[in-house]
Amino acid sequence: MADIARPLNRRRFLVTSGLATAVAVAGAPGPAHAAPRPRTLDGDPFTLGVASGDPEPDGFVLWTRLALDPIAEDGLGGMPSRTIPVGWEVASDERFRRIERRGTAAARAASAHSVHIELNGLRPGREYWYRFRAGRHISPVGRTRTAPHPATYGPALAMAFVSCSQFEHGYFTAYRRLAEENPDLILHLGDYQYEYKKDVYNIPGGNVRDHEGPETVTLATYRQRHAQYKSDRDLQAAHQSAPWLVVFDDHEVENNWADDVPENNSDTPSPEAFRARRVAAFQAYYENMPLRRRSIPRGPDIQVYRRVSWGRLANFHMLDTRQFRDDQACGDGYKDCPDALDPKRSITGDRQERWLLDGFRRSRAQWDVLGQQVFFAQRDNTDGPVKKTSMDSWDGYAASRDRITKGWLDAKVRNPVVLTGDVHVHWASDLKADYDDPGSKTVGAELVCSSITSGGDGADSDPADHPFLKINKHLRFYNNQRGYVLTTMSRDEMKADFKTLPTVRTHDAQASVKATFVVEDRVPGVKQTYLRPFDAPKGATRSGSDEELIRQTIENETQRP
Predict the structure, then answer these.
(1) pTM value > 0.70
(2) 350-380 in b/e burial notation, b at 16+ Cβ within 10 A?
(3) Rounded to an integer, what distance in angstroms lies between the CA atom of residue 194 and that of residue 250?
(4) I need a surface site. Which of 134, 252, 454, 493 has the fewest CB within 10 A?
(5) What average pLDDT does this structure show over 64-81?
(6) At what angle do helices 271-287 and 219-230 cross, to 10 degrees?
(7) How far apart are CA 3 and CA 290, in angstroms?
(8) What backbone phi and psi angles, to 5 degrees, belong to 4?
């Protein structure tokens, strides 16, 4: 259900639940009008927390979903089948003494009792606090903010980005540590949840906890899985701390899917079955994310690529590299594959590519940031004339990458930066006009975040030891520990702290900075300003040959059941 709250002098807001719409009355600040006393719920329905997202200069989206029993097998959270009135409030102070907006929305069973409130008419560049009420129960309080006025830069932006949170592989401690940083904005670049049933995707040393239910294929199982993840208190803390911009990658549906093509050995191998699976996955994704009503799914399709501006400081071009891509070339995996160079192949589809290139041409922002899923820079895993690269990444769609890169060069984009998830490892890279020419100029920067948990603990190392950095001179940093990236964006530079945790097997692990890179205004590429020394365990030696490290790296990012 989506709820559009307009300025107070308009007094009306639109409530949307799935495809059904209704009109309700939003009162001005002050005591709410008397309403019939709702039937009470048997317990606290706010077990999945609250969230906000897609900030604009005058508003944002607020989200919650009611669930008495988050892991109920039918995916409906143990809720009654009736519609539940949900009150909401937005205040300009955390004690709710200055109420800016309030209203009531209808949480309907048809949308798993999820609520989306779209607000506008608020002041730009301001912090706000929000909460919900259902009967006598009051939700946790969330903190959010509006974007700066379009004509201003605003103060420096504390923006973090994350990806790949496999529930079974560890505790979401990294989310908790991120919340403690008090960021202004969080980008989630995909693999928010994973589809596997218990004891299928296992890590060395054993999984820390288990998924409930079977592999996610139906609407009920996707809803149940999202609810299991959302019930995690560390994830809830991250959502409560700041507005999010979310896009999905593959595991929100199924590993390595491409448009209408499921993965090899899929549980839904036929076109009809896989399209039905997409319908279920996208409905559950929308129900569980702070997305605007423009992202309400239409059957097996959902609109998630979009552009969010942060004043004159930054444009965030949030991409979808799954729904419109050609199938992975040469059967997927790391391959020496001539088909990867086919100029007709696309990872974005023609329409999204045109939209992105048009955004470059229109941009007057200091920074143009691509928030997307898979590795953008070339990564060759062999030292020699044979080139083996990942067919699931932009390497498998080289002409598509070339067109996007040429697009920002032709448009004279001031500072292009690509943000990436997916590969469960921290990387930093210069972006090149021609990766096969050692003298090619640097034309941009790529920052890649490690996973929140996926792959388990990993290990610290000296980045210079990794053979990928020797084979691919534009790659500048590598670290295989879990964590997130916290950036500070100003007019002069974008500073990125690569945060790591020593373990995800305990709740109390602390985060620290492994490396800091800076992208300077009008200076393409990344510049390292700090590296935490690698303190190798006493008596330890480097684990394996270059070939073994390459194998481990590929396995870490591609190994699936």
Answers:
(1) yes
(2) eebbebbbebbeebebbbbbbbbbbbbbbbb
(3) 9
(4) 493
(5) 98
(6) 40
(7) 12
(8) -100, 115
